[in-house]
Amino acid sequence: xxxxxxxxLTLYGTSACHLCEQAAALLDLAVQEALISDYDAVDISEDxxxxxxxATRIPVLYRQDGCELDWPFSPxxxxxxxxxxxxxxx
Length: 90
Prior knowledge:
The protein is 33% helix and 18% strand. The chain is of the alpha+beta class. It has a single domain, classed as Glutaredoxin. Strands 2-1-3-4 form a 4-stranded mixed β-sheet, with helices on one face. Strand 3 and strand 4 form a beta hairpin. The protein is globular. The N terminus is likely disordered.
């Protein structure tokens, strides 16, 4: 089992995105299971640069070290990403 993730995670998405809600549900489960302490959810529609960068990719999970995990990701890919891997996308 991965250690508690100390690196902040950011979920980029929008409030009207059902896929973003699914990704957030996986992250909420990871919080409940104490795999991560928390994450930030950022609505890209409120920032022009973020919107340009992520508009066609959301939801995207961003790790403080610069790694990103694009949707769709499975619970196992999320665990791998939390544990410092690329979630099988690299």
